[in-house]
Amino acid sequence: MKEKLLKIKEEALAQISKSQTLEQLNEVRVSQLGKKGALTEILKGMKDVSAEERPKIGQLVNETRAEIEAVLEEARKKMEAIVMEAKLAQETIDVTLPAKTMKVGHMHPNTRALEEVENIFIGMGYEVVEGPDVERDYYNFEALNIPADHPAKDEQDTFYISGDILLRTQTSSTQVHEMEKGKLPIRMIAPGRVFRSDEVDATHSPSFHQIEGLVIDKNITFADLKGTLSVFAKELFGEDTKVKFRPHHFPFTEPSAEMDVSCFKCGGKGCRFCKGEGWIEILGCGMVHPHVLEMSKIDPEEYVGFAFGVGLERIALLKYEIDDMRLLYENDVRFLDQF
Ligand code: DAH
Fold it and tell me: Which residues make beta-bridge pairs with 258?
């Protein structure tokens, strides 16, 4: 038995010293020490050994196992060190190679303009809300005082999903959703995408963005509207910006106006930018029509309000001096990188 063990040990050590890879070392471990290995075979034969010999043989088997394991372990460590060294030698870093740069994107001019507008109104205590792009005729037209036969419906032709369901033509529909919630007072802006069946050109697109504003409270007057929107204009275009209100017509406001800002390029003298006018049209606004309040279950004897609607692209084009709206949608990074 002793000789057998000695032979196993010699055989194992010989195999270890011949091994050239970690896999080969592992094969030695399996064939010598594993479940079907030579040493295990010996242990299986223990039943034929006499009772007094058994402990001695058992001890010898364990010693042999320990010796083989120790040599195996040492060989494994050496082998691993060699492998690691080879790997390091192969992976030397050439610090003179140019660095890989990560291209970091940045905000789209529309998004930047929107954040700026939002921050101005948040600063004045407004809440930012959103309404759905797909609307019922009621929210987009009817509840805004635009009945089925109203000519304003022609100007805002859109994409119909069914006779009653359409892509909204104006964020004004959000006014109705907010009023229907029944929580007063309201002080909100609602940015979002709107749709019209317009041909694409430098100033038109079938899909663009607006920012709606609505304030409803007691004792609100046209002076509140003027004060609020003039602060907005100054913060957006500069402290020296003047505003001018021209009477206009919108079905959902009465009285209604369009607001112009003094040209921030020439200060109002007239230049190429403002087409010699000195003024630039910027938004529509007015006092919420009593009929609109009534339809959304608000008592016009008790509550009054003002509303306004701004085109987001118009602001982005003006602020960043871009002269063609299509550039905003083409997503050419060579163009976008400039902002
Ligand atoms: N919804 C109007 C449009 O798309 C813009 C507008 C005008 C909104 C006056 C308003 C407003 O809230 O009071 O042309």
Answer: 246, 284
Query: Phi/psi class of residue 125: alpha, beta or left (left: φ > 0; alpha: ψ in -120 to 50)?
Result: left
Question: From the CA of 308, how far away is ligand 1's center (Å)?
Answer: 6
CA distances from 213 to 147, 162, 174, 256, 258 (A): 22, 28, 9, 14, 14
pTM to 2 decimal places: 0.72
User: Is residue 308 in contact with ligand 1, taking CB distance under 6 Å?
Assistant: yes
Residues in the chain: 339
Q: Is the domain of 167 the same as that of 228? A: yes
Q: Is the beta carbon of 311 within 6 A of some atom in ligand 1?
A: no
Q: Let me know if residue 201 belongs to a domain.
A: yes
**What are the residues whose beta carbons fall under 8 Å from the beta carbon of 157, sequence distance 6 or more?**
169, 196, 197
CB 218 within 8 A of CB 302: yes
**Distance spanning both ends of the chain, measured CA to CA:** 87
pLDDT at 63: 87
Q: Are residues 41 and 140 in the same domain?
A: no
Pocket lining: 145 vs ligand 1, CB cutoff 6 Å: no
Are 134 and 165 contacting, i.e. CB atoms less than 8 angstroms apart?
A: yes
The number of folded domains in the chain is 2
Summarised one tens digit per residue, pLDDT across range 13-58 is 888 888 888 888 888 888 888 888 888 888 788 788 888 888 888 8
